[in-house]
Amino acid sequence: MSFRDLRNFTEMMRALGFPRLISMENFRTPNFTLVAEILIWLVKRYEPHMDIPTDVDSESDRIFFIKAVAQFMATKAHIKLNTKRLYQADGYAVKELLKITSVLYSAMKTKQMALDDQVEEENNKFKFDLSSRISDLKTARQLASEVTSKGASLYDLLGKEVELREMRTAALARPLEINETEKVLRAAIKEVLQSVEKTKDMLNNVVSDENSLDAKIEKKKQELERNRKRLQTLQSVRPAFMDEYEKIEEDLQKQYDTYVEKFKNLCFLESQLDEYHRLEQERFEEAENTLRMMQHKLREEEQDLMRSSCEFHHLFLVSHTS
């Protein structure tokens, strides 16, 4: 038993509507009661009126139950089951149960797809069906899923053949009423004729629609051809204003080239002017710094002279006093 098989089985049973919640832990150990409940439910899904023994208390009852289910699945659903694995009622039984649930799940999905296709067809019944082949494929899948149920019904009908043969023989032996038979035949013939007339009307409508569509397509083709010829004519004729247009375009190109050249010159001159202003500013700042240094130097020299004058005057006074 793989984890994926067990997960797929639980999800399929949940989707099919099994009333009991199945956990992945239910099959860690043998659980024949749960397996029997699942088998009974699956058999009822195939054949609601199937009479199958539900007593599984003793070993012989369980063996009889497993054989009955396996025989039913083989004859009704054409599914071959391993009775030994089913009797183990553990993880290996899940693989056998998965054979049954896979068929039911596929049939359910196919039926759902068929219902969706039917709704879509009703919504788009006045539109062109461009996916008829896909619908045929889906119908084929649906028919394939119905083969099992039809085979089971056929088997039941064949089982009633003995009783039906006697009834049929009695009915054939009974004398026929000519008037009643003629009346029934006339009604059947009338119904068939009406169906034929209805089919003919539908075919005539289809032919009429096809002719109408062909006429519209031909008209569109003619319009397309006229427009193509008109386009070729317009492309081959040179407009009268093209000479003037080309001359103006040439002059405009020359003016643009001149503009680009002058713009480049202007940008260059502006950069030169900015450089000149920068140099002038540097020279001005340098001259200002030089002047400031000269002023500072003159102050220092003036202070030195004043100190020297004061010292000379002091010495003069001292010498004169003595």
TrEMBL record:
Q: Which residues form a coiled coil?
A: 210-304
- Predominant subcellular localization, coarse grouping: other
One of the protein's GO biological processes: cilium assembly
Compartments (UniProt record): Cell projection, Cilium
Enumerate the Pfam families for this protein. Cluap1
The residues forming the signal peptide are none
Q: Which Gene Ontology cellular-component terms appear in the entry?
A: cilium; intraciliary transport particle B; microtubule organizing center
User: What residue intervals traverse the membrane?
Assistant: none
List the keywords (alphabetical). Cell projection, Cilium, Cilium biogenesis/degradation, Coiled coil
For this chain, the family text in UniProt reads:
Belongs to the CLUAP1 family.
- Please report the name of this protein according to its UniProt entry: Clusterin associated protein 1
Source species: Echeneis naucrates
| Gene for this chain | cluap1
